[in-house]
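Narrative summary of target 7.
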Amino acid sequence: MAEQLSSRPRIAVSQIYSLDKALVEFIASLLARGHPPSTITIYTNAVRHLVRWLREHHRGIRSLTERTVEEFLFNHLPTCKCHAPAPRDSPTVRAAVRRFRLLVKLRQEAMRPAARVLTPLERELLDYHTHLRETCGLSEATCIYRLRYAREFIRRFIRGKDVKLLRITARAVTEHVERRAKGVKPGTIRVIADSIRSYLRWLQLRGLLDAHIISAVPCIPQWRLTEIPRALSETQLKKLLRSFDLRSPSGRRDYAMALCMSEMGLRASEVAKLTLADIDWQQGTIKISSTKCRRVRLLPLPSRPGAAIARYLRHGRPVTDCQQLFLRHTVPVGTALTLEMVRGAMRRAYSRVGFPTTWTGTHLLRHTAATLMHQKGATLKEIADVLGHISIDTTAIYTKVNRPALKTVALPWPEVMP
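Modeled conformation, tokenized:
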């Protein structure tokens, strides 16, 4: 039986995936990404130039490596005498050819049946990630930095092909945290220490570590309510909202996103993951599923954010099958907006109105929503429910920025009589 299987002819990748098929897929990908016809024409001619050059040198799809691309760009183009259309503009041709090479590489990798074997470090982190998500119930954003600092820590104990977890000592833990603390802010080192402590507790849960080693992780002091969250005044907020160009589709989108954060207190990640199905227009509610605490909350949809979203849906949102609410208006048009794009839109708005360059985070708008709610009489419990806080202690910080309420409890300063 084995001999029969081994005698069967193997089909080479080049026989089922040719340069012609790759070129067709490349053009289709440009169309799907929403490139204008002029760009598609230029990119297509550049790749056809590459394909023609490959065939003249009797090369097929399997020869399209990074080295071949460099040979075409730096050896052939400067002396090219090919018949038109044969674009020679270096930046344009380079961009088109490298995108084509990437598409071919991804296609070839997808056709390979053999799966890559995980390294011991990757396997350890994969198991830890599963523990964080399924047992601890952490959001993916929290898992990302927990895994990042756990990876740094584990690499100290890799010897050859194995992760020597039994070599972890209290002294090694302390030394790692002290060395990592140099040159970083207190908040960052606190996150690093918490991440390492979390990983060590997971090892203890598996019976691979003694409890006393966990106590070797330094406790970074953090005094509650020491910092006052920065928030915009009503005048500043009006100035920011007026900076969006409501005549353009992207301006309507950014304006609606800003209202979701400044009036409803949504996180940027929650705004990016909103879907069309999350809004119940008849009931006037919006469902927030992708939360930091992985808890679904149902919020009333205020009139201004609701009207802004409706205007964007009617007069701005691209026609697409994507179910996310806020979409890209640049290539690839109609695809989901990412967290960084939401942040970038708000940073550009901060810059337009002249806010300090240090104001880069979108939590500024979330803090503004909470502060204004408290100043207008909302209780801490109500604000915690809107923001999705598990503990009211987290929400208590906003009592420090409610200046009108603080004035009512301020005592008169005693005068010194002569």
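Confidence is low (pLDDT under 50) at residues 1-15.
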